[in-house]
Amino acid sequence: MDILKTTNLKKYYGSGDTTVKALDGVNLSVADGEFAAIVGTSGSGKSTLLHMLGGLDRPTGGSVEVEGKNIFSLKDDALTIFRRRKIGFIFQSYNLVPVLNVYENIVLPIELDGNRLDKKHIDNIIETLGLTEKVNNLPNQLSGGQQQRVAIARALASKPAIILADEPTGNLDSKTSLDVMGLLKITSERFSQTIVMITHNEEIAQTADRIIRIEDGRIVGDNNA
To answer: Are 217 and 24 a contacting pair, CB within 8 Å?
Structure first.
């Protein structure tokens, strides 16, 4: 079953001779439980694509479906709620709230949505990611690798349909990067979590089950095709 599907997805900036085609007709599907990496150089369109997949920006044309729902058929407020419930994000810069401890950061999106916490699920994530001893620490008391683990835990906590990871190792050294990617792979398998990650790093991309290559706003390679 496809959790994510794009149809002729386009994002253009400007008009006439100055038009920039950041995405130029992207057709893509990602199956339930799949861990896919989207690889491309700077300016290839991979970040624009991730923003479209997450409903963070609206396309010029085409559609994005998450669990069969065309997310851009939703008005802004409804899209915000859908995104919070169905899409988890892992950012390069972690995006943790500095005044909240590790546990509070992990459960924040669930509490914002007014949902009941699945404490057993959250404790399982915390244990899997090796954060049990850090739950009361503030973000500034953690290493970069530990902060990214908290960001992964936060993304997993709400049981989203899909997790989108934006250069998740971009601020980490090579050893920590491989450690974090190993944990991302483990959590993908243990929690049957669908993950789409963008990266420019070939070694990091090899961690994924599937590698999709993008250049000039178009998909030019897919080892699942």
So the answer is: yes
pTM equals: 0.91
Angle (deg, nearest 10), helices 102-112 and 119-128? 140
**Any bridge partners for residue 103, and if so which?**
none
| Angstrom distance (rounded) from CA 39 to CA 181 | 15
Structural contact between residues 21 and 28, judged by C-beta atoms closer than 8 angstroms: no
**Which is nearest to 104 in space by CA: 81, 136, 146?**
136
For residues 67 and 3, is the Cβ–Cβ distance under 8 A?
A: yes
Q: What is the pLDDT of residues 2-32, one digit of tens each?
A: 999 999 999 999 988 889 999 999 999 999 9
Q: What are the chain's domains?
A: 2-222 (3.40.50.300)
3-state secondary structure of 122: helix
| Residue 175: how many other CB atoms lie within 10 Å | 9
Bridge pairing between strands 61-66 and 2-13:
antiparallel
- Is residue 162 within 8 A of residue 130, CB to CB? The reply is no
Angle, helices 144-157 vs 119-128, to 10°: value is: 150
d(CA 102, CA 216): 39
